[in-house]
Amino acid sequence: MRKQESEEAKLELESKSNHDGNLKIAPDDQSFLTILDDIKSSKSPAVINYGASWCGVCSQILPAFQKLSNSFSRLKFVYADIDECPETTRHIRYTPTFQFYRDGEKIDEMYGAGEERLHDRLWLHS
User: Fold this and answer.
1) Out of 13, 25, 35, 55, which one is annotated catalytic?
2) What is the dihedral of CA 26, 24, 93, 58, to 10 degrees?
3) Which of 7, 82, 83, 126 is buried most, with the most CB atoms less than 10 Å from its CB?
4) Residue 85 catalytic?
5) Catalytic residue among 13, 58, 78, 92
């Protein structure tokens, strides 16, 4: 049941990400590498949400992540599923993990979820 809910949340996120210029979904390792290169060569702040389709907490935070991408338009938002991007996400030990970038450098990392906690961290880094 949880996996199905997560897949539905991810599909909804994918359909909405096409309309939101600051939210990208990495469908595979190669795409994620391209997105990472863009983040590392950019001055724009960014946040990467590492999740998994089987992770119940990840599926709960996905809709909030999408909604927050509309509220923090200065940040680039990225979602990477660790099962779809196994080579580039092998360093991730917990899901969800949020990494925050500024001036091409990782400046912060947050484990777990909570919409208010995520909002506060986004506000801090925006």
Assistant:
1) 55
2) -110
3) 82
4) no
5) 58
